[in-house]
Design a protein that fits this description.
This protein has 259 residues and is of the alpha/beta class. The protein has nine helices and ten strands. The protein has a domain of 181 residues: Rossmann fold (3-Layer(aba) Sandwich). The strands form two sheets. Strands 6-7-8-3-9-10 form a six-stranded mixed sheet, with helices on both faces. A hairpin with a 2-residue loop joins strand 9 and strand 10.
């Protein structure tokens, strides 16, 4: 795993003494059904603090359902998810940890400028004053290569630029965990590579855990410290990209044929 470089970042000065450290994620015997459809099947997974883990699977294998359990938006039929050793269903969870998610659609508000989209969480939670918020917005946009775009409207951006704004918005929250839901969906190969570079940049520069949910095998092998292959609701194999390249599992081999 690449060791992060703890470079100064503007919100280090403003987060009121809150220590931000990467958190681990532990999933134990997770099961979830919708009617007769068993989506997650006795799923077990551990994510090490500070690593970038990619959950790789085809459409319909339970990736998005698993992501919703990790962020506490969905309750399992059985099993448990802990983030930073706190069950995500515990009332203390949101008080103790900050999670950010980058959605496939980017989920920007079209009526707000780029800067106001990035600042939205900070203003809603009154974390900083306006001067500090402007500092955070400026620097997070610079990190993703969009410096000076504060006043641009989302309608003026390409799909890839919208994804980078969404990453800046996530980073502005000073999270311990960032989750990406199909971050390269609907992007061309060149922009897919750009989003991969942004994920790598965060891994190298900041102390943060990242979980990437995707069917994009190129992205998975480009950014991951480890890859967990999800099929029919269970993790069938997990390991470093180099290990998976030598896999004898037929499902993993099917993914590799597209490389």
């Amino acid at each position: 795993m690449t060791q992060p470089v703890n470079e100064p970042f503007v919100w280090e000065k403003y987060r009121q003494g809150r220590s931000v450290e990467a958190v681990g994620v532990v999933i134990r015997s997770l099961n979830k059904s919708f009617g007769d459809n068993l989506v997650l099947r006795d799923l077990n997974l551990e994510v090490t603090p500070g690593e970038t883990l990619v959950i790789l699977g085809k459409s319909g294998t339970g990736k998005s359902v698993l992501l919703r359990h990790i962020i506490g938006l969905m309750k399992p039929d059985s099993g448990a998810v802990t983030v930073g050793e706190i069950d995500v269903e515990d009332q203390e969870f949101r008080k103790k940890h900050t999670l950010a998610i980058v959605f496939q659609s980017a989920a920007l508000f079209n009526s707000l400028s780029v800067g106001d989209n990035v600042a939205l969480y900070l203003r809603e939670h009154r974390i900083y004053g306006e001067e500090e918020i402007r500092d955070v917005v400026r620097e997070t946009l610079t990190v993703v290569g969009l410096e000076g775009k504060e006043d641009v409207m989302p309608s003026e951006l390409s799909g890839g630029m919208k994804k980078r704004v969404a990453i800046a918005r996530a980073l502005a929250m000073s999270p311990e965990l960032i989750l990406y839901d199909e971050p390269t969906g609907e992007l061309d190969p060149m922009m897919t590579h750009t989003i991969g570079d942004e994920i790598l940049k965060l891994r190298k520069r900041f102390v943060v855990t990242q979980i990437v949910v995707t069917h994009d095998v190129y992205l998975a092998f480009y950014v991951a410290d480890r890859i967990a292959v999800l099929d029919e609701g269970s993790i069938i194999e997990i390991g470093a990209p180099e290990k998976l390249r030598r896999s004898t599992n037929s499902i993993t081999r099917d993914f590799l044929r597209s490389l």
